[in-house]
Every structure is written in structure tokens, then in C-alpha cells.
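quick q for whoever's on today - can somebody do inverse folding on this one?? i tried earlier but teh output was garbage lol. C-alpha cells:
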């Protein structure tokens, strides 16, 4: 099925916004794609005609099976390109999202298949987000935010929620990246900050805000 970039962006947004049992509202979608409600309504009618969403006027909506399949294909392309840009071209992970937003609309499945093989079929992108496989399956892992890890536990950084440049600079300063092993030394109840130890680095303190944006596996 040939879709416009705008249609693919809407489908991807609906996928990310969907809450099981609740669906997505037009207001939520308008905020996500940064457009007016009237434009959203027109697009919803178009996607409904293409059987990509389950939609009734003035009700919440959701993706159809076909819509979900296409959303996962777009997300797969986006995250594979992010991995390529970071691992093969040396981009920083906070720089790649907008570039991948353009590359995700390339329609050649053979290109994406070869890109996947070239990269070694990674399961996660540079931010720790799972990459759907060619069948739309997503590898799941049990994650816990750093601020909730018990003291004396050693964990591995698995994902970063805040993908901004400022967060990237903070993590780089503390030598934290995806795959970094961190020992939780102490929690401070006063402000929720966390004292951590990384390899041979000196003890350092992360703010509660920073710790709440770092996802780990035990």
C-alpha cells in the first residue's frame, strides 16, 4: 500500500499514543502531530477509508491490524537508521532522530532488509528502544528506572527516556551510555538524588530527574 509521509506519521503517532482499552483521542493526536483538530479529522477519515484505523466520529480510535503492521514497519526503519547513523557514521545519539524521521519513509523493503543484515540485526536502537523485527515482533525486557533500584545493586543501563542534547551532555560527563554498568551506592531522601559508582570512576551523584530518565536491567 502506497502511503504519503503524512499518513505514515499519523499512523506512527497513533501507535505510540495508544493505551490498551482506551484508544486515542483526536485531541491527543492533534497535540502529537502539532496540527489543528480539523486537519486531524480529515486525516482520520482518510485512514479509515484505507482500513488503517478503527474509527467512529466523536469517539476514540485505534489502529486496525493493517495499520499496526504499517506502524511497526515505519518504527523498524526509523530505529534501524538511528542505529546505522550512530554505529557506522559516528553521529551522537541525540543528533539522529530528525534524520531518521526522513529516512523512515524510504519504501524499499529490500534496502531495509539488507540494512538489517549489515548491522547484525540489532534488537535495540542507540537510545535503548526495541527495534521490531521484519515480522513486527518486538523483544521485551523488564526495565526499572535508576531512581528505584535498591542500594548496593549493580545494573546495566538499557534505555534513556530523555533524548535531548542536554541529557546527552550530562550522561557523557558521567561516562554513562547504553550498556554501562552502574552500582547504586546510596539514595538521598532529601531530594531523591542517587550516589552511583561506575567502574573505576569516582563516586558521583545524579539528580532525581536524571535518575528517573535512565532505564536499567538488573
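ok took a stab at it. sequence:
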Amino acid at each position: 500500500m502506497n502511503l504519503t509521509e503524512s499518513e505514515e506519521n499519523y499512523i506512527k503517532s497513533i501507535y505510540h499514543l495508544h493505551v490498551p482499552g482506551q484508544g486515542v483521542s483526536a485531541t491527543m493526536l492533534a497535540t502529537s502531530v502539532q496540527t489543528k483538530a480539523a486537519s486531524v479529522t480529515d486525516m482520520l477519515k482518510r485512514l479509515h477509508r484505507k482500513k488503517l484505523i478503527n474509527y467512529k466520529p466523536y469517539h476514540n480510535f485505534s489502529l486496525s491490524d493493517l495499520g499496526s503492521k504499517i506502524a511497526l514497519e515505519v518504527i523498524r526503519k526509523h530505529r534501524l537508521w538511528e542505529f546505522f547513523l550512530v554505529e557506522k557514521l559516528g553521529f551522537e545519539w541525540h543528533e539522529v532522530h530528525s534524520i531518521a524521521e526522513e529516512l523512515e519513509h524510504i519504501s524499499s523493503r529490500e534496502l531495509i532488509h539488507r540494512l538489517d543484515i549489515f548491522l547484525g540485526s540489532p534488537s535495540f536502537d542507540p537510545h535503548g528502544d526495541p527495534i521490531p523485527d521484519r515480522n513486527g515482533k518486538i523483544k521485551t525486557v523488564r526495565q526499572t528506572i535508576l531512581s528505584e533500584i535498591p542500594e548496593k545493586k549493580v545494573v546495566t543501563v538499557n534505555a534513556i527516556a530523555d533524548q535531548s542534547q542536554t541529557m546527552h551532555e550530562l550522561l557523557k560527563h558521567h561516562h554513562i551510555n547504553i550498556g554501562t554498568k552502574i552500582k547504586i551506592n546510596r539514595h538521598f531522601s532529601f531530594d531523591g538524588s542517587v550516589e552511583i559508582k561506575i567502574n573505576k570512576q569516582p563516586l558521583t551523584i545524579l539528580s532525581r530527574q536524571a535518575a528517573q530518565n535512565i532505564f536499567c536491567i538488573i
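fwiw Residues 65-87 form the longest helix (23 residues). also The chain has a mean pLDDT of 93. so keep that in mind when u check it
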